[in-house]
Amino acid sequence: MTKTKKCLFSRSAVSALATALLISLSSAATVEAQKVERITMAGGPSAGVFGIFATGIGTYLSKNVPGLDVSVAATAGSTENVRRINAKEAEMGISFSSDLHEAFYGLEKFKDKPLTNLRAIGLVFIGVAHVITFAESGIRTVDDLAGKRVAVGNPGSGTFAIAERVFRSLGLWDRMNRIPLLGAQAGEALAEGKADAYFWNGPAPDRVTMEAATKRPVRAIDIHTPALKTDFFKQYPYFARYVFSPGQYRGITEETQTLGIPAVWHSHRDFSPSLVQKMTAAVYGKEGNAHMVNVHAGSKDMIPQKALQGITVPVHKGAEDHWRAAGIQIPEAIRSR
Q1: C-alpha–C-alpha distance, residues 176 and 78, integer Å
Q2: What's the predicted TM-score (pTM) here?
Q3: Residue 261: beta bridge partners?
Q4: Is the peptide bond preceding residue 205 cis, with omega within 30 degrees of 0?
Q5: Residue 8 CB: number of other CB atoms within 10 A?
Q6: Do 36-126+263-334 and 127-261 agree at the fold level?
Q7: Rounded to whole angstroms, how far apart are CA atoms 276 and 281?
Q8: Alpha-helical segments (H) within 65-146
Q9: What is the CATH number of domain 127-261?
């Protein structure tokens, strides 16, 4: 009788311990499942497109990468973003390849102060330089901008930095009345007669220019042809030729050449390779691309085949792992290091 009781007590004890262990494991699993990694993506000013693309990427990642919560920070734009990422004030962001290139290699405004922690993930969109005026303005060539009021973007934005590169090379930067307005605000200034023209760098079709063209026919100014007559492309090899086609915007009646430059998703070199690999796979997959095209039509180029276009800095290890697995060849000059 005594032995039987002893055996029953032993089984009860084991059962209780097992139950306690299961509860403990379940609680631990619940805690583990509730763990969320919160990261920040540097976007851009409210009047620009970087915030639109960054929000699109962040929203998709938060919904489709388990345990990830992405918040988008408003910034001055491209130039500020490379500084923030390099200093670990944000895990990732978007910048034009010009700012990424110059920051990494310590050129121009980053001279002798290279930001070597920057690593590329992939192409987001092709930024198209829009030099826009109303067709009735009398401005027909880039030289006609001398003495005119031209909105060139906010200091710190990618548009401002690109405008300065372009107009300095053409000898116009100090000959224009520069107005620090960006995007929609620049378009409004043109419509209200407070600006004679604006420079805006963003994906085409551009909403600002489409809106301006609903008010009056617009004219795009050729800046590619005059740039060919300088050392612009030798100094800035990441720019390419882009052509506005007739009818692309109301008022454009003939092909007009301009400049194009890639906008690149990038991160800090120390950011988790496994997480970057998951994020890259998610955003550049078919569903991710469809989501981004719904966010902005300029995302049409956000596909694996074009992912490394215009990138001149090393690719992040996690992104490289994904691109290799996807069969994308990575030029030796930008391989992860």
Answers
A1: 23
A2: 0.77
A3: 127
A4: yes
A5: 10
A6: yes
A7: 8
A8: 78-86, 97-105
A9: 3.40.190.10
| Counts for the chain of helices (H) and strands (E), in that order | 12, 10
User: Tokens 């290091």 correspond to what residue?
Assistant: 337
CATH fold for the domain made of 36-126+263-334? D-Maltodextrin-Binding Protein; domain 2 (3.40.190)
- The token pair that represents 164 in the structure block: 């300065």
Q: How many residues does the chain have?
A: 337
Q: What sign has the CA pseudo-torsion 311, 109, 76, 233?
A: negative
* Residue 59 structure tokens: 């929203």
pLDDT for 32-79, tens place per residue? 455 889 999 999 987 678 999 999 999 999 999 999 999 999 999 999
Residue-level pLDDT at 323: 98
Cβ contacts of 149 within 8 Å, gap of 6 or more: 176, 177, 179, 194, 195, 196, 197
Q: Which residues contact 110 (CB under 8 A, 6 or more apart)?
A: 102, 103
**Which contacts qualify for 78-81: CB closer than 8 Å, 24 or more apart?**
78/44, 78/50, 78/157, 78/158, 78/161, 78/263, 79/109, 79/156, 79/157, 79/158, 79/160, 79/161, 80/42, 80/156, 81/42, 81/44, 81/50
Domain limits of the chain? 36-126+263-334, 127-261
